[in-house]
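Figure-free illustration: sequence to structure, shown twice.
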Amino acid sequence: MAEPGREFEPEQRRDFEPEPRREFEHDLEAIEAKVIELFAMVAEDLPGATQALLTGSSEVIKALGEREQAIDALYPEIEAMANREILLQAPVASDLRFLLSVLRIVPELERSHDLVVQIAARANHLLGEDLSPRCRGLVERMGNLVSGMWRQAVDSWYERDRSAAAKISERDDEMDELYASLIAELASGRMPLPVTMEMVLVARFYERLGDHAVNIARRVVYLAGSHGLDGPRGDDKRLTDD
């Protein structure tokens, strides 16, 4: 028995929790594990998409397609699990924030991987040597930047780190600058028109991936117990054409 005034350790508290509560916590842990799995797939596949775009690697494109099928199966499963817990358990406070956050970010994760696949798929429409040296350099920088943003987003979710949102937003400003530079390069007429049209899409895909990372980091602010960031950029970045 615990000494007067002394709290139980987590293991001790769990021993004294009612069985329904232990089952609920087990279900929440299962949802969290699946969300982390989704995060990992997006973050791990991003560098490969840039590699496929610049090198035309068909192996990477095939692997991304297989991963997309796994995500398409996992995404509705997570949503169903979260909705079930809300319906059956009527959660409150941090548990409700967690489940609502899952329902908000899972679509962001699914759309983000769609964008990763779309970037890689452009390799079927152009060759790396079709790109001007400046275009290749900007694409590499955008790929590296957004991969870093997604690693930060994964860490912020796993660690419930509110401070990451501001850092990722700053990096998103850099992404916006790279996007503008790439669009200017594409408008210069140095590449064939079909290549230019494909690369306009690629530029937009990278920008959207950055926006999704920002939205997820801001959702962590809510999950960790705060309702948003200060300032006009506190709301989610609206993405209407994903």
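We now fold a second protein in the same way, so the two outputs can be compared directly.
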Amino acid sequence: MKNLKFILFLFISAALLSCGDDNNTPAFPLSNANIAGNYDISNLVVSTDITTTLNGVPLKIGTATTTGDLFKVNVVMNADGTYNVEGSYTINVRLAPVVGNPVETRDIIDVENSGTFTLNTTNNTITFSEGLVRDLTGTLEVQLFNATNFSLFQEVDVTVGSNTESISTNIAFSRK
């Protein structure tokens, strides 16, 4: 009798654990129609590692961190794949060389950009034809997308003179 109860317990457990949700469609799928709307920028962080090459060996010479705040930027994403960005925000930049003291600056950035965007729902990316905000162009990974927010991420390497800048950008938007 104990064996029968044990086998019955195993059978029920296996049946419950093997049940899955056959619906893999997200509740709010990434699409031009769903991304269309007016947004505020809620967060902007850019981290940069600066390296140079000495005798064939990469050598880190500094880091830069840019943080945006005081966003007064209107971002309009349209269902036809066009966008418009207009307004201003401030950035706090901290440049920290490996040797020496860090330097901090604060700037006001005015932005007035428009262009087209293309969504790739297979790879969860969005590509902008023009700059979205200062120095942010190209293809970005959509990390979060729901009815009220979306966030984007990008990693790029840029050669500046004899240095390489490895840049990671996170930007987030909140629907108005």
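Summary for the second example: The first helix runs from residue 2 to 18.
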